[in-house]
Amino acid sequence: MTLELSSDVMQRLLDEAANAHPCECCGVLLGTASRIEEVVPAANVHAEPARHFEIDPQTLIDAHRAARTRGPQVLGYYHSHPNGRTGPSPRDAELAAGDGVVWAIIAAGGVTFWRSGDGGFHALPYVVRDR
Predict the structure, then answer these.
(1) Does the keyword Transferase apply (predicted)?
(2) Residue 121, Cβ neighbours under 10 Å: how many?
């Protein structure tokens, strides 16, 4: 599967990470099928936000509730790695449910996308398209 997203969505992810630095930003990815249409920023409520992230539970509840009633669907989650590591960290692997959701990791001025599945994370190709 190749993910699609607009240049606006890509820029929003990069801006979120830059604005949160030196802490990790985090939030929810919304869309349909394999297209990320929107990002919903969340407060990072982790006790150590410079090294870890925890999406504000109310943001998660609101996103899932909205998806049930009107869409778009919750495709996954995003967070940044201020240390510049572009792949999932060991802590990310511990947190992943292996449920097939998309994880976006913003680091080193770019974004990588991953699917959480059996056996860990798998890199996802993506294309930036404006329609």
Answers:
(1) no
(2) 19
pTM, two decimals, is 0.94
Positive or negative, the Cα torsion across 55, 42, 118, 87?
negative
Q: How confident is the model at residue 16 (pLDDT cuts 50, 70, 90)?
A: very high
CA dihedral 31, 3, 23, 85 (to 10 degrees): 160
Peptide bond into 72 cis (omega under 30): yes
How far is CA 94 from each of CA 27, 102, 112, 116, rounded to the nearest angstrom? Answer: 18, 15, 18, 11
Please answer whether residues 122 and 76 qualify as being in contact, where contact means their C-beta atoms are separated by less than 8 angstroms: no
Domains and CATH numbers, the chain: 3-128 (3.40.140.10)
CB 72 within 8 A of CB 31: yes
Residue the block writes with tokens 């998806």: 67
Backbone angles phi, psi at 25, to 5 degrees: -90, 165
For residue 39, what are the β-bridge partners? 29
Distance CA 123, CA 47 (A): 29
